[in-house]
Design the sequence.
């Protein structure tokens, strides 16, 4: 199925889709897209199309999973069977279980879980189409779903990967680059607190390349954060106007 | 995997670490004592047991023949699985693998896979049709913290100890012959895990420290001292500076360990 | 020691609001002498206290709140009640009976049954215990007539209006009694169903479509027009 492209970076230093090494794919975000969820967001990051929804804080079932001093955050990252080239079985794979865990751990530092003991918040992420970097786009969307649910947060969480393609450290790998590239470093940050909440890596990087990749990924996260913030504000602009009227 | 830790104990751990010390007398950058035994399960093609302090992990390697993945017809297959068996900790329960055991297996898998530790091309019997499948099964026997480093070490030690059956092809059928050859290896990755308590990094957190840390970071380092896999875990965060510091410490620790083990 | 926002500026979680000698108010938090927003909302600062008026929040019980809830279950010595909060509220049998409860004689479902609506006050609530309700005050108890509607809890102050102007207007124009549950549930009771409908339409209008200026005026206008329309229909 997979054809290996000849060159991932051309003579001008541009990538397969014409991007510069430090350039993000186009990103579109909409907040408040699902009426039944307490909070929701939809992201298109390149060809990735992902929905995230948050429910709660609410009573948890089963009840024995509640904690006496904090809220429990649960997260399910799931890929639709039609989201990838070859149909994916809808049963959760080991990859999806691991990603659910690291996504949850990337979001949890941002949530004031101690405010609502004995409750739970569920985050559901459905990848409708995948094209590399789904865990990062999922985190970006899920953080907005939490904020849209009115859950108190220390910060938003924005995520983006950097990696190595050929000899070049590049930002925001798409699927082809991820498969053929020699390293991938997904990173999530709380932008205002200078805190990394997700960090994974596969491939081989020297210490210097790793440092460069982390820097580049953080820069990418900050750009995504700007889009994220605008999307959240856009959803509430109308409401804000209402409030002003009352003055 | 966490259980409740008393506030007093937490304070005790934090105060000691502030002074650069730890409950068990180690410095912040010290590993617990490491013991490795190889070849202890005769029925397995490869095996090793690692003791990291009181943490005990057994890895058995089985080799079978099977089909290669369609996108890698010229490579053998690696499968890593981890079992947190109930006898290893009161917090482990029998049943299908939970997210902790899946994460453990996938982090160990990534270190081996990304460093290209196994020479997978030499595991091909018939390209696209028949290859050797290497099953790495991680068995946690006693959980006293830092399962990732212990399991990663045991997995590589077991692979170093693994014998592949000799074979010949007769009328298109694979026939196993007498004798064995060594599993072809190209690299011996070493994984180093650090925890963060009160903004300070500690190497090889043991159980009580694991309950006190808010996050951990595991880095697999290959023979050249390059990074080949990373996993951040836990519900806290690292600053970018702490990450680079962790990477530096991991490289240093892996190099020292490699020298000691003569890998 | 600056603040980093304009009055009524829309802010998102994590945005730095002020640095130095300020107090972290509602929907904000402090870390290292810096105050950040914790919810999407509108920032303001009064007497060194930085607040964010949340544009999105859920109902969180507070002792003394009047709420409207649905009875979920008849239990052994009381009822569980959904008050649209992160916690299910409890109403004790003795509170309703105003006398000691005798399990052998009293059938609780006779007093309140699953699905019944009640107006209640939060009597107690803390981190370790679910909210407890009381109905033993005038105006509280089982709802037997009227109609119910739900709005986002953050909009309740807007339905009330400045110094209660908005809610007085609706009450006056429709002749309905209106009980606003702080948890976003509203009970409207009028002489005729048509009056109740009119009041609910007005409240819905407040919640949904008041983007432009002059909300009170427009609601006044709306009520007048609707009433005129109804008169006409009646005469025909």
Sequence:
């Amino acid at each position: 199925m997979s054809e290996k492209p000849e060159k991932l970076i051309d003579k001008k230093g541009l990538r397969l889709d014409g991007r510069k090494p430090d350039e993000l794919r186009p990103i579109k975000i909409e907040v408040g897209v699902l009426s039944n969820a307490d909070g929701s967001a939809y992201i298109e990051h390149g060809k990735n199309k992902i929905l995230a929804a948050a429910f709660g804080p609410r009573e948890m079932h089963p009840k024995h999973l509640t904690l006496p001093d904090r809220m429990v955050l649960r997260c399910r990252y799931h890929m639709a069977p039609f989201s990838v080239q070859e149909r994916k079985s809808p049963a959760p794979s080991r990859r999806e279980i691991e990603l659910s865990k690291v996504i949850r751990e990337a979001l949890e530092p941002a949530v004031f879980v101690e405010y609502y003991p004995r409750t739970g918040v569920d985050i559901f992420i459905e990848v409708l189409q995948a094209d590399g970097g789904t865990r990062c786009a999922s985190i970006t969307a899920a953080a907005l779903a939490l904020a849209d649910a009115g859950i108190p947060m220390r910060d938003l969480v924005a995520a983006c990967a950097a990696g190595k393609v050929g000899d070049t450290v590049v930002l925001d790998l798409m699927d082809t680059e991820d498969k053929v590239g020699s390293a991938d470093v997904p990173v999530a940050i709380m932008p205002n607190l200078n805190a990394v909440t997700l960090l994974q890596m596969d491939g081989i990087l020297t210490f210097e390349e790793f440092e460069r990749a982390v820097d580049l990924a953080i820069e990418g996260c900050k750009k995504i954060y700007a889009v994220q913030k605008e999307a959240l504000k856009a959803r509430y602009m109308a409401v804000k106007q209402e409030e002003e009227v009352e003055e | 995997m966490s259980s409740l830790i008393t506030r007093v104990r937490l304070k005790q751990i934090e105060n000691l670490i502030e002074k650069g010390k730890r409950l068990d007398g180690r410095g912040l950058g010290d590993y617990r004592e490491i013991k490795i035994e190889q070849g202890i399960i005769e029925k397995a093609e490869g095996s090793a047991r690692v003791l990291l302090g009181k943490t005990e992990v057994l890895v058995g390697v089985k080799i079978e023949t099977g089909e290669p993945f369609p996108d890698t017809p010229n490579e053998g297959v690696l499968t890593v699985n981890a079992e947190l068996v109930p006898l290893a900790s009161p917090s482990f329960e029998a049943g299908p693998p939970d997210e902790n055991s899946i994460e453990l297996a996938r982090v160990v898998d990534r270190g081996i896979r990304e460093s290209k530790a196994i020479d997978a091309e030499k595991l091909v019997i018939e390209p696209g049709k028949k290859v050797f499948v290497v099953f790495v099964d991680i068995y946690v026997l006693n959980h006293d913290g830092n399962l990732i480093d212990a399991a990663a070490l045991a997995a590589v030690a077991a692979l170093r100890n693994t014998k592949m059956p000799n074979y010949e092809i007769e009328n298109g059928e694979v026939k196993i012959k007498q004798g064995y050859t060594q599993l072809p290896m190209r690299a011996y990755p070493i994984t180093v895990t650090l925890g963060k308590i009160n903004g300070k990094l500690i190497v090889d957190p043991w159980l009580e420290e694991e309950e006190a840390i808010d996050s951990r970071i595991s880095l697999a380092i290959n023979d050249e001292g390059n990074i080949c896999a990373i996993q951040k875990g836990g519900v806290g965060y690292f600053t970018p500076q702490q990450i680079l510091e962790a990477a530096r410490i991991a490289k240093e620790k892996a190099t020292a360990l490699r020298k000691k083990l003569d890998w | 020691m600056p603040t980093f926002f304009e009055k009524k500026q829309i802010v998102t979680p994590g945005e730095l609001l002020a640095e130095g000698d300020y107090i972290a108010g509602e929907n904000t938090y402090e870390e290292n002498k810096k105050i950040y927003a914790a919810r999407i909302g509108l920032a303001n600062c009064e007497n060194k206290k930085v607040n964010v008026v949340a544009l999105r929040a859920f109902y969180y019980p507070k002792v003394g709140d009047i709420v409207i809830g649905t009875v979920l279950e008849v239990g052994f010595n009381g009822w569980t009640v959904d008050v649209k909060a992160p916690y299910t509220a409890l109403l004790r049998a003795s509170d309703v009976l105003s006398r000691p409860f005798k399990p052998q004689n009293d059938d609780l479902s006779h007093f309140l049954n699953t699905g019944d609506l009640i107006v209640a006050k939060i009597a107690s609530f803390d981190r370790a215990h679910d909210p407890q309700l009381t109905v033993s005050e005038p105006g509280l108890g089982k709802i037997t007539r009227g109609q119910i509607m739900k709005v986002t809890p953050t909009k309740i102050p807007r339905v009330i209006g400045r110094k209660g102007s908005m809610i007085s207007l609706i009450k006056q124009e429709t002749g309905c009694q209106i009980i606003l549950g702080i948890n976003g549930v509203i009970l409207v009771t009028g002489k005729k169903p048509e009056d109740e409908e009119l009041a609910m339409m007005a409240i819905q209008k407040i919640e949904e479509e008041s983007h432009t200026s002059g909300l009170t005026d427009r609601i006044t206008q709306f009520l007048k027009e609707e009433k005129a329309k109804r008169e006409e229909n009646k005469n025909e």
